[in-house]
Amino acid sequence: MKVMSEAGFNRVSFGIQDFNEKVQVAVHRVQPYSITKDAMDLARKYNMLSVNTDLIYGLPYQTFNSFKETLNQVLTLNPDRLAVFNYAHVPWMKKSMRKIDETTLPHPSEKLKILKYTIDFFEGNGYKMVGNAVPPNLAYYLAKKIFEDLSTIYSEKVLKQINAH
């Protein structure tokens, strides 16, 4: 982190995916909570302005309850932004996915339940959904609102020019 900070990097993202060990082993991405927490603490120590996490729902062996545990753990890390992705199982496109036993994947109804809970969970904990979950005071949220306002102003300006001709 020190080298990255000295080189001018000011944000970092951690691909957590899920903290459940069985899920991590199934997707070959084992990284215990403690290691992730230590890395995120280092990022903040070295003045990373944005420390983000990525989660994936729909992974092998993932359940509604196991993902709820992951969400609770992630919340303790206080990320600046969370990207939450749907796992798309496409073994005909990605050969590495052929190793995954499809019977271990959650049913689509379970995935929808996980997604809905995830949105409600983060919004209930002060994050705002703007494609990703961000704390309400974060610049991304404000920038999106400003962009929407500027887009509206720009559109009105263009319409006036069109109507003038």
3D architecture notes:
By secondary structure, the protein is α/β, with parallel strands linked by helices. The chain has 2 domains: 2-134, Transcription Regulator spoIIAA (2-Layer Sandwich), CATH 3.30.750.200; 137-165. It has 6 helices and 5 strands. It has helices spanning 2-6, 21-26, 33-45, 64-76, 108-124, 139-164, and strands at 11-17, 50-57, 81-86, 128-129, 133-134. The strands form 2 sheets. It has a 3-stranded parallel beta sheet with strand order 1-2-3. The chain has a two-stranded antiparallel sheet with strand order 4-5. Strand 4 and strand 5 form a beta hairpin. Helix 4 runs parallel beside helix 5. It is globular. It starts with a helix and ends with a helix. The relative contact order is 0.12. The model is unreliable at 147-162 (pLDDT under 50).
Q: What is the share of helical residues? A: 40-55%
Number of strands: 5
CATH architecture level-2 label of the largest domain: 2-Layer Sandwich
* Amount of beta strand: 15-25%
Write the H/E string, N to C. HEHHEHEHEEH
Offer a few descriptive terms:
165 residues; alpha/beta; two-stranded antiparallel sheet
